[in-house]
Amino acid sequence: ALQAVIFDLDGVITDTAEYHYVAWKQLGEELDIPFDREFNEQLKGISRGESLERILHLGGKENTYSAEEKEEFAQRKNEHYVSLLDSLTPEHTYPGIRELLLELQASGIPAVIASASKNAPQILKALELDSLFRYVVHPDSVPHGKPAPDLFLRGAEEVGADVKACIGIEDAQAGIEAIKSAGMIAVGIGEEAVLKGSGADVVLKDTKQLTLSFLERTLQE
Ligand code: B16
Ligand code: MG
């Protein structure tokens, strides 16, 4: 039986993935490194620092700036991102998510957040979902970010769940890889072609069909 559901946050619970894109894109333009949505796929699920490195690499500028300058760039992006979060309300929760969390709570199955974002607690609060999660893994509490399995393994461990009885839900390629290397079933949210390529067991176009019975069936197959 299903022992825990481990959720990514940005792009699964709410559309903050779009805010990340907007904020990075602006920084990219300021640094004269334009990029599109296709490149942005590579930034999803990746930490703030690593995302900046990938953007600088894209522009051939990985050796142009000092550590202090990079720190300032990451901070500038985060300030822009956090200002976009101000408009976040419970209505911004993706369809079906609150209902699924209530179903899980009623069944005593823990819901866990395994997000690469340091802003996760603030986002959950703004969505008024914080009380529905048993545990939120802090990204700095594990040695490796996604695609390493650490965040998902820590999530399962914290609620005493066997990885084989856990389902991870992700919108990012790096996140699907992380779930699979943790030994869990991976449900992808987004484009089938993109996420199946990373090893997703099943892909849904959006969160509407995410119900407890769907997850239980997926685990059994
Ligand atoms: P922050 P997730 C990830 O969250 C985002 O997908 C990624 O784009 C972002 O860079 C990362 O969090 C770090 O976020 O700058 O807020 O610490 O998808 O793992 O929930
Ligand atoms: Mg995500």
Topology:
Elements: E1 4-7, H1 16-30, H2 37-40, H3 48-58, H4 67-85, H5 97-107, E2 111-113, H6 120-126, E3 135-136, H7 150-158, E4 166-170, H8 173-181, E5 185-189, H9 192-196, E6 202-204, H10 212-220
Parallel strand pairs: 1-2, 1-4, 2-3, 4-5, 5-6
Helix pairs in contact: 1-4
Bound molecules: 1,6-di-O-phosphono-beta-D-glucopyranose and magnesium ion.
1,6-di-O-phosphono-beta-D-glucopyranose binds next to helix 1 and helix 3.
Care to give the gist of this entry?
The chain has 221 residues and is of the alpha/beta class.
Strand content bin:
5-15%
* Overall SS class: alpha/beta
Order of helices and strands: EHHHHHEHEHEHEHEH
| Strand adjacency order, main sheet | 3-2-1-4-5-6
Bound molecules: 1,6-di-O-phosphono-beta-D-glucopyranose, magnesium ion
Report the sheet with the most strands, covering strand number, pairing sense and barrel closure: 6 strands, parallel
Mean pLDDT across every amino acid position: 97
Q: How would you describe the shape?
A: globular
Poorly predicted sequence stretches spanning 5 or more consecutive residues: none
Count of DSSP H/I helices: 10
Indicate the percent of residues in helices: 40-55%
Radius of gyration: 17 Å
N-C termini distance = 12 Å
The counted number of beta strands is 6
